[in-house]
Design a protein that fits this description.
The chain has a four-stranded antiparallel β-sheet with strand order 3-4-5-6, with no helix packed on it. The radius of gyration is 19 Å and the shape is globular. It contains two helices and 26 strands. With 385 residues, the protein is mainly β. The relative contact order is 0.14. A hairpin with a 7-residue loop joins strand 3 and strand 4.
Length: 385
């Protein structure tokens, strides 16, 4: 799985000179322990924030190219077994004013029983705030929401705020709970089940003032408010959504959903969507049936899928990426994504994914080290990957 492989990852930066093709990989940092995710604070062009699997967030100074010796925060109760650990982070869109940021992390829950199994840990969304030192966060956390994980895999893990000029909500990717074939139908269960979903919440309000473990509001525009289905659900039918991103220009959402036996997929949601998409797991895997499952009216099929294997356009564990919006005009608008197990990196034109997909490994020659078991992409403030 992507998380289990993370200890072998070197931190790499795709180097995109102006008006040139992809020219290679530049090693951006060393001395990290299982880096899982990288991102930037809004408007901050001088730093990158790197999530390590064990619960530490490191700061990379892009001017000095040095990692700060002091962790931004250390999340001391992180349980990193299996696919667990510190999965990702997201800065509040108004971070410059309020200093708030959010993490998706797994924590030992003491052995909760679920579906007749002892749960290894629970997934938590937590809010932190920066201290008076911009390179150090306050250690105290506010619990936003949490849910129990039946097993140690398929946690999803990505979180992010939608771009644009309207209301900003936090989107949360949750996996199906980890059992082969999702036998409990978690991804299709709409009441009392956050697994296999995209959740959407408002972190600037609180609909649960009497509950210290639920500190968020439900956007009234969520598709299941007033309907059958948990109010927090924005979309559903996902197996293990491993990395997603919003196109910072267009606002569309793309997700890499890891398959089981046969196919890996990239799912799409338009910026104009009202939510409620069903991506059809566990009846479908990519564009094919899973265990004879039918494609039903209303199912949303992936915009691109590929078969398992070790070939040029094959793999076993998709890594969702980004639409490039950096300084290179030749790359503007291309979607970059990868596969952890096959070490393949691809691009496609979002207007025609199937007919434009290209493997770019030959162009990604590192200046140091090797490209091995990639687990995530990330953007800096300028849109470099």
């Amino acid at each position: 799985t992507p998380v289990a492989a993370a200890a072998l990852i070197a931190a790499l930066l795709l180097a995109f000179p102006v008006a040139a093709a992809v020219t290679g990989l530049e090693r951006a940092a060393t001395g990290l322990s299982s880096p899982m995710y990288v991102t930037h604070a809004p408007g901050d062009s001088t730093r990158l924030f790197i999530c390590e699997k064990g619960g530490v967030i490191r700061i990379l100074n892009l001017t000095t190219e040095l990692i700060s010796p002091v962790p931004f925060p250390t999340i001391s109760d992180t349980d990193s077994a299996g696919d667990g650990g510190l999965q990702s982070m997201a800065f509040h869109p108004d971070y410059a004013a309020n200093g708030r940021f959010y993490v998706h992390v797994t924590v030992d829950n003491g052995g909760v029983m679920i579906d007749g199994l002892t749960s290894p840990f629970s997934s938590y969304i937590r809010e932190y705030a920066v201290s008076g030192d911009p390179n150090v966060a306050n250690p105290a956390a506010t619990e936003v929401l949490s849910w129990v994980q039946p097993q140690s895999n398929h946690n999803g893990g990505w979180i992010g705020f939608n771009p644009g000029n309207g209301a900003k909500y936090l989107y949360i990717m949750s996996g199906d709970g980890g059992r082969q074939g999702d036998p409990d139908d978690n991804a299709q269960t709409m009441v009392g089940e956050p697994l296999g979903k995209v959740l959407r919440i408002d972190v600037d309000a609180d609909d649960f003032p009497g509950d210290p473990d639920r500190n968020y509001a439900v956007p009234l525009s969520n598709p299941f408010v007033g309907e059958t289905g948990d109010d927090e659900i924005w979309a559903y039918g996902l197996r293990n959504p491993w990395r997603a991103s919003f196109d910072r220009d267009a606002g569309d959402l793309r997700t890499g959903d890891v398959g089981q036996n046969a196919r890996e997929e990239i799912d799409f949601q338009s910026v104009t969507s009202d939510g409620g998409e069903n991506y059809a797991w566990n009846r479908r895997e990519g564009l094919i049936a899973h265990q004879g499952g039918a494609l039903l009216l209303g199912d949303v099929q992936p915009v691109y899928d590929y078969p398992h294997g070790s070939g040029e356009f094959q793999g076993n564990s998709v890594v969702g990426g980004y639409v490039y919006r950096g300084v290179d005009v030749e790359l503007d608008g291309l979607y970059f994504f990868a596969d952890t197990i096959a070490d393949n990196v691809w691009t496609f034109d979002p207007a025609d994914p199937v007919n434009t997909v290209a493997r770019i490994n030959d162009q990604l020659v590192p200046d140091l080290g090797i490209l091995d078991l990639p687990v995530s992409f990330g953007e800096d403030a300028a849109g470099n990957l």
